[in-house]
Design goal:
This protein has a three-stranded antiparallel β-sheet. The radius of gyration is 18 Å and the shape is elongated. The protein has a single domain, classed as Orthogonal Bundle (Arc Repressor Mutant, subunit A), CATH 1.10.10.10. Helices cover 65% and strands 8% of the residues. By secondary structure, the chain is mostly helical. α3 crosses α4 and α3 crosses α6. β2 and β3 form a beta hairpin. It starts with a helix and ends in a 7-residue tail after the last helix. The mean pLDDT is 94. It contains seven helices and three strands; from the N terminus they run αααβααββαα.
């Protein structure tokens, strides 16, 4: 069924449709290895910045405490991350990526990159760069380039 023409001309509607397609592609790619978007976000944050407190990690990847706790439990169970007591502040835990987690993240990165390629396949290289720039601008994230 075709959506109303007026909707198909609204940038917000089109962005939502594109986001749904992109999300589906990424979720399918990660799901092939039994991971979800939150797992990937947490592992990526740890790879970029190293060990972090659970509170800092949650803020960085926009996950509330209970959701982050569940994600970390799954990743720790599977040997992807390790939680250990912070030597400087025994009240908090630090989370770090394990060597197995580093290997897994490389595979997941390749899958996410392939999903991104599929998402932007209809565009030329120049259009892909322009799309990224424009999306970052409307998302208020000019630093994302």
């Amino acid at each position: 069924m075709t959506p109303p023409r007026r909707l198909t001309k609204l940038p917000s509607w089109l962005a939502g449709q594109a986001a749904q397609r992109a999300s589906r592609l990424v979720n399918e790619a990660l799901g092939e290895e039994g991971f979800r978007r939150h797992h990937f976000a947490v592992m990526t944050a740890l790879a970029e910045d190293g060990a972090a407190s659970q509170a800092d990690l949650g803020r960085r990847v926009w996950l509330d405490r209970s959701d982050l706790h569940a994600v970390l439990n799954e990743l720790e169970r599977d040997g992807q991350v390790l939680r250990k007591q912070d030597a400087r502040d025994r009240r908090r835990n630090l989370v770090e990526l394990t060597p197995a987690g580093v290997k897994t993240l490389k595979r997941l990165d390749a899958r996410v990159d392939a999903a991104q390629e599929e998402f932007v396949a209809p565009l030329t290289a120049a259009e892909r760069g322009e799309l990224t720039r424009l999306l970052a601008a409307v998302a208020g994230r000019e630093d994302a380039q």
